[in-house]
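Shipment paperwork, digital attachment
Item: protein structure file
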Amino acid sequence: MGLSQALSTAMSGLRATQASLSLVSSNVANAETPGYVRKTLNQVTGTTGQYGSSVLITGVNRQLDEFLQTQLRTETSGAAYADVRSDFLANLQGVYGNPDSTGTIEDAYNKFLTALQGLSTSPESQSARIGVINAAQSMAQQLNATSQGIQTLRANAEAGISDSINSANNALQQIACLNVQLAANGGTTDASTAALLDQRDRYVTQLSQLMDIRTVTNSQNQVSVFTNSGVQLVGTEAATLSFNAQGTMTPNTLYNTDPTKSTVGTITITFPHGGTYDMVSTNSIRSGKIAAYLELRDNTLAQAQTQIDQFAAAMSSALSDKTTAGTAATAGAQSGFDLDLSGLLNGNTIHVSYKDNTTGLTHNLSIIRVDDPSVLPLSNTATVDPNDEVLGIDFSGGMSSVLSQLNGALGGTGLQFSNPSGSTLRVLDDGAVNKADVTAASVTSTVSSLTSGDPHLPLFTDNGGLYTGAITANGSQTTGLAARISVNTGLIGDPSRMVVYSTNPQTPAGDTTRANLVLNQLSNASYSYSPQTGLGTSGAPFTGTLLNFAKQFISQQGESATAAKQLADGQDVVLNTLQTKMDSTSGVNMDEEMAHLLSLQNAYSANARVMSSIKQMYERAAAAHVRVTCRSTA
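Attachment content:
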C-alpha cells in the first residue's frame, strides 16, 4: 500500500468517526426527547487501491423495532379509550353519589317514604302534610340535578370529540407534509431524513391516541395511515375530518343513524380528491379517545339518563294512573265489555284480552291513544310488557275515526268495536261464529284532578303538565322527564290535598286512604322497566319496586366504574411495559453512548496519528528527494 492509499484510508476513517461523533452528540442531547429514536451510522468497507480499504458511510440507521412500534400504537389507542371511559364513569359515579351518603337519589327517596309514613300515621297533621310536599320536592330536585350532571358529562364528551378532531386534523396535515419532504430525499436515510422520520412517527403516535390506526410504508419512506376499518386518512395528501357539534346537550339530543333524526354531532371525513364518509354511522373509529367519547355520549350516558327517566316515569305513573275494569256488555249472542274513555288522555292505554278459539292462544292488546298520527304505527316496544301486542290509535279525529281504525285493524280477529253512547267504547266477540272470546278489558288513564273523588293523584308533573307517557313526533314523554319533573303546584299551594281527595262529600281530615295508597304504591308495588335501562331484556324486563330499581341501576353504575378503572389500570400496565421495552431498544442509553464516545475518541486519535505519521513520511521523502537532486546537480 502506498502513502496515498494509506492517507485515503485514514481520512475515510476520520470522516466516519466524525459522523459517528455527531450522531452520539445528537443521541445524548435528545435522550429525554419523547419519540426520539437512537441513531447509528451505517458503514461498509470500500477499496482505495489494489491492496487498500476504506470506510464508506451509506446512511443513518434508526434503532427501531417496527413490530414493537405497531404493538405500542395499538395499545396506545386501547389505553386512551380505557382512560377516558374510566374518568367519565368515575365522574358519573360522583353524580349519583355514594349510596350511604346524603344528596343521592336513594337517600332522597328513603326520606320521601319516611315522610309518607308520618302522614299515614297522622293524616290530620299539617306539618306531616307539608313534610311530604317538601320531601317530594327534594326528590324531584335530586332527579333534576342528576339529569343535569349526566347531560354535563355528555356535553364534555361532545367537546372532547371536537378537540380530538382538531388534534387529528393537525396530525394528518403534518404527516402529509413530512411524507412529501421524505419523498424528495429519494428513499435514502441520512441524518436529516432520520430526524424527519422521528417527527412523523410522533404525529402518528399522537393520532393513535385518538383512534385505532394501521400504517403502510413504501420504498420512499412515505407512510399511509388507515383506520383499522379500512378508511385511508393520509398518504401524500391528508383527508379532513369535520365534526358538527350541536352545542347544548339535553336528554332529547340523541344520536340516530338517520341524519334527519339525529340531534348530536357526527364525524365526517372528506377525502383529498372529493367524496365524504360518515365515520360514526359506519363505526369506522373503534378505539382511542374519539371512540370512547362517542360511546359515552351516545350509549353509556344516554342509558344513565334513561334509567333516571324510567324511575321518574314509574314514580309519577304509580300515583296518577288508575286502571278501571270494563263492565260486562252483550248484544244478542255477542258478549264483551263497555269501557269508559272519558278520562283517556294522550299516551293512556286500553287493555283488551281475547282468546283465539282457532289456535287456542290468548292475545293481550295494548291500545294506546295517540294524538299525533305521524308516529304511527307504534312498535311493540312502546310498552314494557313482552307479552302484549301494541296498537297505536289516532284519537285526533274523534270516536268515529277511532272505531274505523280499531275495526279495520282487528276485524279479522273476530273482535267488534262500537260506540253505544257518549265516550263509551264497546268491544264484543263475534257471537255464534265463536272465532274469538273477549276475556278481559280495562282502561288505564291518568287522574288529572287532586279532588276527583279517587285517591290517585298527580303528585308529580312534567314541568307543570300531566305525565301520561304520550308519544309524539318529538319522541316519548318519558325521555328527559327526570330533568323536568316537579311537584304539583296545587299541592304546594294546598298541602291538605295530600289527604283530601273529595270535596263532595268532603274527605275527613283524618282519612288515611290517599296517604296509604301513595305509600303502598311507592314502597311495595312492583313495576316493570324498559330494557333500554340496561337492566333485564325485552323478553324478561327487570321487575321490582321503585327502591329496588334505584338500588339496582346505582349499583350497576358503581360496578361499571370499578370495572372501567380496572381495565384502564390494566391497559396502562401493558402500555408502560411496551414503552419500557421500546425505550430499551430504541431509546438512548447514556452509559452505552458514553462507552461508544470513548471508543470513537480512540479511533479518532488513531486515525489522526496515522495521518500524522504519513505526513512525516511525506516530509522525509521530500527532504530525501531534495538531497538526491542536489548531489546530482553537483
